[in-house]
Fold Diaminopimelate epimerase.
Amino acid sequence: MTLSFTKMHGLGNDFIIIDGRQTAPALDTDKIRHLCDRRFGVGCDQLVVLSAPTADGADVLVRFFNADGSESGACGNASRCVATLVGGNPVLQTSAGLLLTSQDGDLITVNMGQPRFGWQDIPLARECDTLHLPIHDAAACSMGNPHATVFGDVSRAEDLGPSLEHSPLFPQRANIGFADIITPTHMRLRVWERGAGLTLACGSGACAAVVNAVRRGLAERTCVVTMDGGDLRITWQDNGDVLMTGPATTVFHGELP
């Protein structure tokens, strides 16, 4: 028996994608960690498993697993990769809800849904002002997974990221973005992802950073987010939905015993 997979990346945020719509792969936490290991496995930031959908209107069920084996609720860059792999304009069923996709040439847009701002929704360990957390004055929201954005400290992502991810304020840990506002329509961002560490790009993190910047009065509702791996265009629509637009690249196809 062999396990077929596709290696893809969105702005350097890389994934192993396994299509289990016909035959579900037998994966546990140890196997996921092994596959994601860059020395002993294939290597990636996250492993993505596709299954037959169970929700009305969905084309594919998508589950995201961090490199440490933990499961994530949503991943914007991986969603663009899945849309490219499946083809057309698929509706993705995730634990964060149904994500609508569309493609225009080399660019894929994913409707990441609406952010949530209640302290229970993120979640936080206790009631706090989610626009001004008591740690580094971060702003927090949920984009299907917990995010906090620290403004003006992009150079400290590697320094502060690990401790903030594991702060007692975040009972499920959190993705920590470090953003510098260049202009109201352009920001620089680095994201320390829970379970993966510092990545070259983070789609949901870019969405959260723009949403939090708009809430702070620092950015306009459409903003280019420059990360180490490249640029995403994020639009927080008036209806509350957040649109993320960027590329997706296939690296190679492979098989594992």
